[in-house]
Amino acid sequence: VYNNLARNYLEINKPDSVLKYGNLTYEVGRKINNEYGLGVSGRLLGEYFLIIQKLDSAYVYFRLSSFYCNKNNMFPILAQVQQGLSRYFLKIKQPDSALVYAKASLNTILQNPVKFASWTEDAGPFLADSYPLITELYQQLHKTDSALLYSQLTLQIRDSLYNAEKIRQFQNLTFNESFRKQQEEEKVQQEKQ
Predict the structure, then answer these.
(1) What predicted TM-score, i.e. pTM, was given to this entire model?
(2) What is the SS3 assignment for 91-122?
């Protein structure tokens, strides 16, 4: 529960709440020796410290999380941790190291689609986070051909995700309309009786 709260607060950019619930997740994980909780909370706390510019602490928590994620095959979280480490190295002006972690994240995503699916995670949004980061890093390293390639991949995955969302919305609309008609027909049948 704390993990979900911390993650949701991270998504809406409420760092103080991320710290509160990330710490609670970490403490519970530590007390009951839950490596999943330690892996998840390490990522969330790493993100928190990255946001508030306490970079040494961010690095420590990302590395802690990376250890537990690798040990327990927690690939979706590992991919996010690797992206966090990439952003950490970007902030300390080490774009080469940042690129290593960004590409490691991409490899984690691409090489483990079944593991992502088993976590009920679609790899698409993870790719949508990885490609722009790699594009930015190649731009900083003045490798325009590579930057262009990942920029194109960014557009493709975003289009794909947008189209998938539109299809889901259409299916929901169709289902809702069909359900509404069915209810009307049932109501008419009940009134006839």
Answers:
(1) 0.71
(2) HCCCHHHHHHHHHHHHHHHHHCHHHHHHCCCC
